[in-house]
Amino acid sequence: MKRWAASCFGLGWLPVAPGTWGSLPPAIVFGLMCHFHAPSTATLIVMAAFALAGAVVCVKFAPATIAATGRNDPGEVVIDEFAGQAVTFLVAPLLAAQAAKGVAAGATWAIAPLGFVLFRIFDIFKPWPIRKLEKFPAGWGILADDLLAGVFAGVALFLCSKAGLIEHIGGLLAPSGGSSLGVLQAAILGVVQGLTEFLPVSSSGHLVLFENLFHFDPETPQMLLFDLIIHAATLAAIFVVFRKSIAALVANLLAWRKYGASPLEVYRRSPSVHILVLAVFVTGVTGTCGLLLEEYFAAARGQLAVVAAMWLVSGTFLLITDRRKKARLGLRQFGVSAALIIALAQAVAIMPGISRSGATICAAILVGLRRRWAVEFSFLIAIPAILGATTVELIKHFAEISSGSLPIASTAAGAVAAALTGVLALKLLIRTARTAKLKYYGYYCYFMACSVFVYVLMTKNFRV
After folding, report:
1. Are both 71 and 120 inside the same structural domain?
2. Lower CB density within 10 Å: C or N end of the chain?
3. Which of 110, 138, 173 is the last residue of a domain?
4. Range of the domain at 377
């Protein structure tokens, strides 16, 4: 439990850039408080509480991690980054109040990412005298340099505000030309799509949540067009990460004649043909279920309470799957019955809050497929699934989409953010799925479900 707390509830155990993940929660909370126009005093109290709590946990519990790992500054301890990032935003409530009075509609949102980037720069490069503080003993050495990095980042953020940089960035990020979608908002939605399309935490659920937070109507021509663009961008990430596997699959398909003369013999002997046939079967079943239940899935899209309930379901299956340590099926033993279960899981994942990648990987592992093949098969069938869903939406809403328009800057920001984060998310999922660490995504799904339930209740109370 001490190591879990020092890792900022598991964020430090993520295999890619754990310090960056540990810095995210204060930045996200601050950004949301700005979005909902929380009083400066309340924001200041929350950030001070984060900094104090992170500092206490680091000093008290980091020594347990040092003793367990034998390293003076274990990478899994990121509660110090959590505290340091909160220190950065202690000055930010005053900046947010100033920005809110300015002309730039995106100025308050610009503070959160700028403060996050500044803190990461000071924390990574550690200019004098930040690096000197690492020599303090035990948890104090881990904590002190991040607190000073937070102070430096806060001062830099304040100077940026005085120089007019925040309002300038806000002006660039604010919607323009009659558009309701600014560059920063587009980038945030692109990052959300890129991360959650592949990580088993439901991209549809996150998009519904963020579209509600940004007060966007997902059925407007503009948002329909934007959703199609960022979905196409995330599809590119699959070809980048799995390019070698896809190239080997295609090469093996072209050499199908060496496996026999009859189609049945080729299906049994050629691994590529075998997998391709099963992938087509899964896609067909998923498409059929999606068309039959389209009305129910569409009705659930606008209901946050339903999304939260589905997040609970996703989290439960991720925790169950992680308990299965052994798998016996290879690609040759993988048959139609197992593919049918995966197909039904992928169909259920059309429901917002159920992750497509999570549902298919969990189903594949639970039916006995080895973890490596479970991940690769999940993203092989993702290609036709994403292409098919995008094509159906394009045909269905062609008239509305053709009448919609998006600023070039917003479109590019969303697409690039979705593609780059999609690549990172895929690599992260491959590592965690193969090492039986899907439970951390399960914990995240539980957290999101509880947060959304609280948000729904608070929203109803405010309406009353």
Report:
1. yes
2. C
3. 173
4. 183-463
What is the amino acid identity at position 407?
P
State residue 461's pLDDT score: 40
Q: Is 369 helix (H, G, I), strand (E, B) or coil?
A: strand
For the chain, residues with pLDDT lower than 50 are 99-106, 177-178, 461-464
According to the model, what pLDDT value does residue 82 have? Answer: 92
The C-alpha atoms of residue 185 and residue 110 are separated, in whole angstroms, by 10
Q: 422, 236 in Cβ contact below 8 A?
A: yes
- CA dist 338 to 279, 317, 331, 433, Å? 11, 17, 11, 19
Contacts of 154 by beta carbon, 8 Å cutoff, 6+ apart: 87, 88, 89, 90, 91, 92, 115
Are 133 and 41 contained in the same domain? yes
Q: Which of 343, 336, 338, 378 minimizes the C-alpha distance to 357? A: 378
pLDDT in tens, 61-109: 888 888 887 777 777 888 889 999 999 988 766 655 554 444 344 456 6
Whose structure tokens read 């509660």? 79
The domain boundary residue, chosen from 126, 145, 173: 173
Do 282 and 343 have their domain in common?
yes
Query: What pLDDT shows up at residue 213?
Result: 66
Q: SS3 for 129?
A: coil
> Which contacts of 339-344 are long-range, i.e. CB under 8 A and separated by 24 or more positions?
339/278, 339/281, 339/282, 340/281, 340/285, 341/367, 342/282, 342/367, 342/377, 342/378, 342/381, 343/281, 343/282, 343/283, 343/284, 343/285, 343/286, 343/289, 344/285, 344/289
Residues 211 and 152 both lie in one domain: no
Residues 371 and 441 in one domain: yes
Contacts of 131 (CB under 8 A, 6+ apart): 145
pLDDT at 100: 47
Q: What is the pLDDT of residue 464?
A: 34
Q: Provide the token pair at 170.
A: 């806000």
Q: Tell me: the pLDDT tens digits for 254-271?
A: 887 787 777 887 877 788
| Nearest partner of 199 among 23, 424, 452, judged by Cα | 424
135/72 same-domain check: yes
